[in-house]
Amino acid sequence: MKKYTHLLLVVLIMAGSCQQDKGEAKEQFRERQQAILEKETEEIEQPEPGSAAIPTEPVPPQQEDPREERPSTVAGDKVIGIKDGDTIELLRNGQAVTVRLYGVDTPEKTQAFGQRARQYTSDLAFGKNVRLIAHNTDRYGRTVGTIILPDGRSLNEELVRNGYAWHYKAYSKDKNLANLEADARRFKRGLWQDANPVAPWDYRKEKRSGGSTDPKTETASAQAPIPTGATKRTVYICNSSGSNVYYYNRDCYSLKRCKAEVIAVSEAVAIREYGRRPDKTCGK
Fold it and tell me: What pTM, to 2 d.p., does this model score?
């Protein structure tokens, strides 16, 4: 009996020992699995050599500072008046300033292309903000300067370039203006369409002295009778030195061939100041 009891005790001890060994084996197996998982996780999270680490959270884009914005326009002096092609009036600091364009001389209002030059200046500059580059002050107290238009062009140069002004060589040695005049002459732009345009400084000198470039015209105008109602009647003249008649009808085919400026004056002025006689091709 004791023999069987002893054998049963041995079996129970061996069974407990085996159960303990199995538990330890399972625990070791779990530890090895956990170690393998941790190693694989480290390899995935570890960036490859030379590659940038991928951020876990997106970086918000950098916002622009609104204080760094700049105005798109720059204020300047506003052109409030056009006296003639080469003289304008600016509003500067609340005061009107008369500016004589530097280096250019446009035809007088009563000369060929005088009104066109004034209109051209008005089209480019009137009512716009411009930049004045002042050179000096003339004897009449006007500021002599260059006007820079909003698009960056020089008003002075544009007048010469398009044949609406002479380069005023007596007061300017600007080679650029001289070259622009030479081009305008060559391509017969503006006033250079006329075969013999009279420079405005010569025109003013003759007007002050009471002279005339054509003695025959002066004599004819002094002796020509003034018709009744001539001071109220409007006629049309081709403002070119090559024309010596005036027209009653603006649509006269002869007048339409005029390459210079067509201006409207009273018949008396056409006779006395321009030395013209009535045209006979179209009549009244």
Answer: 0.53
